[in-house]
Design brief:
The structure is a homodimer of 339-residue chains. The first copy, chain A, is of the alpha/beta class and 339 residues long. Chain A has 13 helices and twelve strands. Chain A has three domains: 44 residues, 434 Repressor (Amino-terminal Domain); 124 residues, Response regulator (Rossmann fold, 3-Layer(aba) Sandwich), CATH 3.40.50; 133 residues, Response regulator (Rossmann fold, 3-Layer(aba) Sandwich). The structure holds a DNA duplex (30 and 30 nucleotides).
Chain lengths: 339, 339
DNA sequence: TTTGGTTGCGCAAGCGTTTGCGTTCATATT
DNA sequence: AATATGAACGCAAACGCTTGCGCAACCAAA
């Protein structure tokens, strides 16, 4: 088998406790012995068994990350950034990919992270039952894109303000008929769609533009949904001259719909997204960018801080800034647009 | 603290060993007692400590997955699929995101997976030193997109054949000046760029088209690189009428370059990619699709099989099929193309 | 009734660490 | 010279499980 702590202890001629202390930089070991131990450990290829050490110490040096659809750019990017932060701090990451309802159910009934992680970072939006299950772990918790929650550190953007910036941009360009492609929040505590809609309504009201419910469509926060939604808007009696898509992926779908109708952005229709998707640049999509990786980093740091100073008050709720990125899909309305 | 196995043993009035056997479905426990134990465990919210059980049993029920850039669609998707497979089989996933050289070095010097995982799945391409380090773990190993390797199960596509299909498609459309945007394999054993280039050369030779080195450019397998490469091709004395990009991301960059030059695909230039990127559809990019998620699933399954039947011979090398997806960026050459 | 085989369970050792406490020994203090 | 002090280290008890073995109790076969 692989070398154990007693093997290196024997090699140096000291006790296992001394090896343990030496390797973890604890005091009580002379520099001379410390060096011998380090050398012996290296030559034996010794690595402490995480199982044994966490059993003995109670700390696992592991963070649980639960996420839906790791393959999607958005979640993958957050995960990527968070992992880097945890890894650099010496923590390992246990990943639970809970895209499917079965996986999610399995996770919350078996709770495989119990006694296995020192903290949990969740990219999911939880109902109260799930939140309670997580709280029962009694470890620091962090999550995203939701209203403040007891027991959780939550990070996100100011969705309402971000949407306002997007729509204001369209208004400033001179648009008066502005459509929206949004989504529903479902039964969960996912506040994003409602907040972004509110931002849209805010700006319309501010600009004295009457709200036309026919211009609000549901894109389900997917590319295909965005395509369907734009198709729907184009079929309206009086189509909009500009569209605010609540996410870049829906905006991409919308652009695709335009192409299929032989229309062009921004000549025939302005489109603005929200997210700052990496491929928005390729498409030349104007968007409100949120620091996606930045949010992963931020949440990870907050969690790490709580692990270092367990008594410090949890930060509760932090919001990161967004910014408008001007590209090629928005312009003043054309005298003769579609229809 | 949280409940331990002795707590539930005491609650039922049996020994800890019986609880252990009952909960893991081992024989030697009557149905009656088994049910009582299950009930007690549920009511106490008991979950076995993974640290303790793996220390005692030697099995960790954990798979190590090492990957670069989890945020990129390609790797994220493979990871996503693999995690689902592992999760369904009852294994947890320890993720190591080794995008940066520092993270990579840290990983291979500290080897945090030693004694911590039952197998490792790597999305990285390793040099021999790294491969040896992994082999020293003495667990089943799997990796991707490289030549067969002792000790590893490797899954991938037939890169050469896939490239052939792509270029053949362009030839069949009537193109004779066909550019390529490729990449270098670097010092590693990443065979993809050379294989795909070989496929390109194969078809040219087959069609009796002389090979013009000026039409081969390096796009570094990134969007920006693809953009630069296409710009370079457009500036050539005699630009190509069609371009084969070795990856979809480079093809997207190429399309962007075309747009910036006020050129259009396929009218002014045909472009074909390779990968089957999720957003290739949005862009209408013709491509050779490889089953990205499928490869993650496949590798995970092969690994799981090795864990179940340790003595079965490892499958060595498996190749999954690719297919041409016709979309809107390829067409016969126009009588008056660019130049 | 004895024998042999099963079934259901408990005992206790062991997995590889960490850590509180005790011991030794050298050095500093009176 | 006697004593206190601290550094360096070893001992042994956890940590919470798994598992080989032993021991009753039971049933079937002889």
């Amino acid at each position: 088998m692989t070398a154990s702590i007693t093997d290196v202890a024997r090699a140096v001629g000291v006790s296992a406790s001394t090896v343990s202390r030496a390797l973890r930089g604890r005091p009580g070991v002379s520099d001379e012995v410390r060096e011998q131990i380090a050398a012996a450990a290296a030559s034996l290829g010794y690595t402490a068994s995480r199982s044994a050490s966490s059993l003995a110490s109670g700390r696992t040096l592991t963070i649980g990350v639960v996420a839906p659809f790791v393959g999607r750019w958005f979640f993958g990017t957050v995960l990527d950034a968070a992992e880097n932060e945890f890894g650099a701090a010496g923590y390992d990451v246990l990943l639970y990919n809970l895209g499917s309802p079965e996986a999610r159910k399995r996770f919350f009934t078996k709770m495989p992270v119990r006694k296995r992680v020192d903290a949990v970072l969740s990219l999911l939006v939880h109902d109260e039952d799930e939140a309670d299950a997580l709280r029962s772990l009694r470890v620091p918790l962090a999550t995203f894109w939701t209203a403040p929650r007891p027991g959780f550190t939550v990070v996100g953007i100011d969705d309402r303000a971000a949407a306002q910036s997007a729509v204001r941009h369209l208004v400033n360009l001179g648009h008066r008929r502005i459509g929206m492609i949004g989504g529903t929040s479902g039964p969960l505590h996912w506040t994003t769609p409602v907040e972004r809609r509110q931002g849209y309504l805010d700006v319309l009201a501010d600009a004295g533009i009457p709200h036309d419910p026919a211009l609000e469509t549901d894109g389900g926060y997917t590319v295909e949904g965005g395509e369907r939604a734009m198709t729907e808007l184009l079929a309206a009696p009086r189509p909009p001259t500009a569209v605010f898509a609540q996410s870049d992926e829906m905006a991409m779908g919308a652009l695709r719909a335009l192409r299929l109708h032989r229309l062009k952005a921004p000549d025939d229709m302005s489109v603005i997204g929200l997210d700052g998707h990496e491929l928005a640049e390729v498409l030349g999509l104007t968007t409100i960018a949120q620091p996606v990786a930045g949010q992963g980093t931020e949440a990870a740091r907050l969690l790490l801080r709580q692990l270092e100073e367990p008594d410090a008050a949890s930060p509760g709720h932090v919001q990161v800034p967004t910014r408008l990125i001007l590209r090629d899909t928005t312009a003043p309305p054309q005298p003769r647009g579609p229809q």
